[in-house]
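Replying to the earlier thread about multi-chain prediction with a worked example.

Input:
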Amino acid sequence: MQRRHLIQSLAALPLAVHAGQLLAAPAAQSRLLFVFLRGAYDAASLLVPTSSDFYYASRPDIAIRRPNAEPDAAIALDADWGLHPALRDTVYPMFQKGEASFVPFAGTDDLSRSHFESQDSIELGQPLDSRRNYRSGFLNRLAAVVNGARPMAFTDRLPLVLQGAVEVPNAALASLTKPAVDPRQASIIAAMYQGTPLAGPVNSGFALRDEVNRELSAEMLAASRGAISTKGFELEAQRIARLMQDRFNIGFVDVGGWDTHVNQGGASGYLATRLNELGRGLAAFAQEMGPAWRNTTVVVASEFGRTFRQNGNRGTDHGHGSVYWVLGGGLSQIRIAGEQLRIDASTLFQNRDYPVLNEYRAVLGGLFARQFGLSGKQLEQVFAGVTARDVGLI
Amino acid sequence: MRLRIAFPPSPVPLPRWMPLVLAASGLLAACATVAPGRQPATSAAALSPKAAYETTNRLTWGANLNVVAQAEAQGSAAYLSQQLHPGPAALPPAVQQQIEAMTISQRPFEDLVREMEQRNKEGTNPAATEDDRKAARQAYQQEMNRLAREAATRHLLRALYSKNQVQEQMTWFWLNHFNVHQAKANLRVMVGDYEDSAIRPHALGKFRDLLGAVAHHPAMLRYLDNAQNAAGRINENYARELMELHTLGVNAGYSQQDVQEMARVLTGNGVADGPGQPKLRPQLQADYQRRGLYEFNPNRHDYGPKRLLGQPINSHGAAELDEALDRLARHPATAHFISEKLVRYWLSDQPMPDLVERMAQTFQRSDGDIAATLRTLMTSPEFAQGAGRKFKDPVRYVVSAVRLAYDDKPILNVGPMLGWLNRMGEPLYGRATPDGYPLDAASWASPGQMATRFEIARTIGSGNAGLFKTDGPQPMERPAFPQLANALYYRAIDGTLGAPTKNALAQAASPQEWNSFLLASPEFMNR
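Result:
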């Protein structure tokens, strides 16, 4: 693998070139979906360091083969990196169109290697050496500074990342049931709240519910006409897209099941199935967004990476550096972004993990500044004490 | 004696199904025994139905016919005293049997933890086949989930049916204050014992006893990583939360240095991994301590001198923690911090400084007597004026609805309630972060929350909602219907409702809908 530096990738692409559609779009038209993979997905199986002999020596049972004509080999992205073949029909076509990028060596400086600790730490996005404010997630702070922000959590509970001063609605879309409270009952209930402090939440709660329900009705109609019905995350992502087309512009969803300590598999197997499902969801989201995809960015992140070497159970343990994905209809030409280094035993962090060279708050800060046209002062409100680093993704 | 009662005056016509319900219910008999007119809330004399409803709605997990009748007869002062100094927690026999049949009731805690650890090891046993290992892992996870569910079930059954309602609410309060998360490590097998042996017995006792019981329970030692805290490998997690979340409160004047010193005090306090004792040098032998799964391991303890909050720690070994906890529990900041949080839970999202100050004085004067501090709160003029102003969090909403709907008729399955709590994002032992669930309205009255709450109101109002059908291959089902248009409604609740709610109730097309509207009303969202 060639040693590539941040300087190189940034210098090659002057700022003006990237001031594309996203920057031109008013903040209110820009959309951001943050997809959080809880459980720490194995990044070295997604973005495969195919030029590294050390990778193949470290993972005799679970490595993804070097690119070749076979369907179970990694798909070459450049001379050094390959993509997991489970994403061949979903994320790879996006990559070819310039709608998918990856930031390897990304993550937090939090070293706890605890899922909860690191997830909290990432969602809060606060300086690690300060007292945590558990009521202030970074997407909520982003919503506070973006003009015309309409945030929504597509989860059953409001996640830490969206807690804070801005009131954020939430609804899980994975398994929707038709509301049991009918429209007549809803209007009778709402009338009880007229003039009370809860009138606002009650009315918008019913409105949100009706909006979601309308999308569901369209789905059910389509199904009854013999359309192929989707399920799982793909269905959820389609629903999210429908709501983000015009109602919401800052979204959050989480996907679990990535803690692969045992038998994670390689080109096929458990992790491949999870990646395939995720990829189908992301592609479905992009398609469903329609013209709005042009102004949309999707960030896929996880709390930390996993050990570079496989463990005794053909799985991987809690590690450090990860790979963040950035998808969108208005990305720049940079496909593999941020600071990188050649991976061998000597460059591993603590001789076990990917190091973190691209601190996530700096990277996301740079991304948000581009996408929503944030000032330095606004960025400081989102990620205090961080010097944003524009790795040139959009 | 059965009375023939006319319908109470109402500004709107009653739905036409209503007379049938009342004629069949025959629940209005008790009316004649209650003196008319309002009684002051602090009087020892019998209470009016409305005052008894408001009092019990605030002192219990939710008013129902039974507790209102009790408070009417006793008067609020006697009722409050009984709640603050309760006797044995009597439960209806059917509920008691449900609890006694649980694994967490039958197996000693330490045995159960050891057994589960053994089963966990089978999941990685190199001598077994991969299929066997996989089956073992699955069985282990299922059993761990089942044990945590037993604990949550027991908690809800007690909330619904225990006579000691203030004690049960304080058990939830302290569980939340000293929050642990069941998803971490093996906490699913520990949460039941944590609640039952560290929290509930001290819920109305001395704060120092409660703090000590929590600090020596393996659930807390593991949740906040103190089991990993050792001399030379300091983990500050528990030390920090102990001061910031459990005792002094944030910005109480302690320093990062105090946190570090507290962490050193805590070194060696951990969880006993196996039945044996660690190898110890002779001079450390006497310091070793072991109580159940709690272990003080002198090998891991930092024996250097320490200062905490400006004073030296004078004891040595395990006793250092006791000395430090004494200091934290008796610090004035702790009295204020705990008093303020009690006001947030029982009365208001904006604690009144005067009231907090009076409570903090009681707390300090009584050496942290929780019942005495609560008495100052519950007999205060601020409390007397606060009826119906505190928004219910999801757990209170669900428990109060089921209590009102079924009174003392024991439900057979709390599964639906656990599901509703999940849907609303407040499951028991389910808060990942050590700060516990928020207690304010803003956190629980979001649009998504309200819409979900109305769905649940409709589910509870429309029928037995699965509460009277047991799980398993041969489920048992008992007929049940939530009878909300009952004597309690006409004698007390009706008088607390505003015109918009009565108007909505009058539009109900069925008893099911009437129930749903009552449970969805703004008045029922508060206590």
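Residues 199-224 of chain A form the longest helix (26 residues).

Feel free to reuse this layout for your own posts.
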